[in-house]
Specification:
Radius of gyration of chain B: 18 Å
Number of strands of chain B: 0
Helix content of chain A: over 70%
Number of strands of chain A: 6
Structural class of chain A: mainly alpha
Largest sheet of chain A: 3 strands, mixed
Oligomer: heterodimer
Largest sheet of chain B: none
Largest interface: A-B, 51 and 47 residues
Distance between the termini of chain B: 56 Å
Strand content of chain B: under 5%
Strand content of chain A: under 5%
Amino acid sequence: MVFSNLPLLILFGPLLAALAILLVPSRGFGLRLIELIHTVSIAAVAVLALAIASDVVDGAHLTAFDDWFAVDALGAIFVSVIGVVGFLTGLYSLSYIRHELRDGELDPAKVKSYYGFFSLFLFTMVLATIANNIVLMWVAIEATTLGSAFLVGCYGRKSSLEAAWKYVIICTVGVAFGLYGTVLAYANASDVLGNADSAILWTTLAAHATALDPMLAKLSFVFVLIGFGTKAGLFPMSAWLPDAHSEAPSPVSALLSGVLLKCALLVVIRYYAITVRAVGPEFPQMIVLILGTLSILVAAPLFFVQKDLKRKLAYSSIEHVGLIAVGLGVGGPLGVAAALLHAINHSLAKALMFCGSGNVLMKFHTRDLDRVKGLMRVAPVSGVLLLFGCLALAGLPPFNVFVSEFMVFTAGMKAGYLWLMLLCALFFTITVAGFIQIVAGSVLGKAADATPEGDVGVAALAPMGILLVLVIVTGVTIPGPILRLVGDATAIVTGDSTPVAFAMPWATQAAPAEVALAGPQLHTETKR
Amino acid sequence: MFDFQLINGLAGLLIVTSLLVILSRGPANSARFYALQSFILVLTFLALAKETGSRELYLWSASAFVTKVILVPAIMYRAFSKLDDPRLGSGETMSPAVSVILAAGVVILCFWVVSGVALPAAEAIKPALAVSLAHFFLGLACIVTQRNILKQVFGYCLMENGSHLTLALLAAKAPELVEVGIATDAIFAVAIMAMLGTRIFLTFHSLDARKLTTLKG
């Protein structure tokens, strides 16, 4: 373990920015200054996240503040997701929020709070991913709810207040289960290890997991899964998600779906790793598999019947979180690696689509798909971006979601879950149909004559363009650093460094090209 | 041994006070009972600190007194006494008798679950441990069965008190900062819920959770 200042910098940077924004007056020049602080904040988080990831790729395990903060490969994946998606949605916010201000949907005071809470939300999510102290981990997840509640209820309409209330109540109650699970895990470790200070560290818990009381370890995992699973959007605890995602401003929806759900999943994964070591893989895998499958089976039909674009995307998020859980439930190095890769890929693709829904709102002032027609004609660039976003989330090649979806299904079949995987795949075809409906009706289709022509500004399109490029690049190949991080993280989760055989789905010749890695060895099959 | 009986007895009183919080009319009254309950929780911490000789627990008792007996009830009392929805009444969806029977059922079930825990530290305080678990679920039941959104906030506070007691019982020597973290989060949570509840009351002119039905599907 290497001491580093980077975790502290990435943590306190956005917190300071949030405080600074709250001090600046919201009138006149103040708004420009707020935008500037916001831009510096999101850029700093992105740069520091990538610097941390790069150190971890080089084999470092960064720690700070008496090991209360630590970034391993598992944490680095999620820190990078916060950095990249946080930066791009933050950039998109600049254009989107100006538009909302012009339209009178938000007033300057609300805009100021928006940017203040945006940085605060980034701070809480970073805290959740770098906390090594399990109670701090809980505090962070709880704080993400409190930090983002304002963002969800930002518009102050009846529907947004209702969504914010449901969000706060369901998530704090859910996360109270997480606290109970945390307390049980800590008490268990503290009793077994006889050291109250180090028993609170996740790294210690993972290292001594085999000594834990199995009954308490199981009980703790159930509480943690219910608790943080609520925040991750797993069925049946996901009741808050469609409301919060649809009522929040679009860049925030992107952040909620793309990043927040994954931060909660990270905590679930950390406890999954402890439980696998403490009581063996069967128990945690079984319950995660059940919740994951249920999430897919319930969310897919609900996704299909929605008429509201953002609610549709929200149900798609539940479905994809379900698929990540299925990957974890299938277990083994391949299942876990597929789940982690899907977490990254879904973040990028879903952020693109939620930003796309923001463009739709800016053009049509409605989320009702029956009234959104012919985006391609009135705003061609937005249309193309939304078209590719739909195809990506539908799981078609050459986009990244296809790669990781395919990997999850392959892992499941190899683990002997043939019928279950076929069932899940069947429900994912419903999703394909749903996205094709969006493409056929809203992206293509014939625009109403009253809809003014002209695209949204470059400032909104550029971050989406970057997201699309990332979605395609990670769909064509798994970049080296990601491969390395996912491989190392998989070893951390399974506690087993057996090689993982990755195969890009269209590799026709099985020609394993070994990638030399320190630690766990990854064998990859790449396209020739 | 005597002191462990005291701890178990105080924990039993917590169940009684939770029922008072859940069943009392009006959120302002619930805030008073919540303060009383937190005071009993602090006494439990003190008894436990004396028995285990834990310096950390004495500190916890002090910080829990400030946050749970004074700050949180004060925030709720101030925010909630201005809000009143006379049409809603006490907001219960089941009669007090049924609630009490349900609570008894929860306690019995929790005793059964706790009997399976084999930690040596838990041996003498199993009744208190069962109560802390039951307390957590009573809070949950309060949230699920209450139509008054402010009463739902109390449900969360009961759940939080339950987990806090479990932590003290099973890990008396946990670092003080841990407790501060949990307590601070709870204060923020209650403050934000109170703020949102007030805005909902001003917008909807009601505190009835069943009126929050714009979003469906």
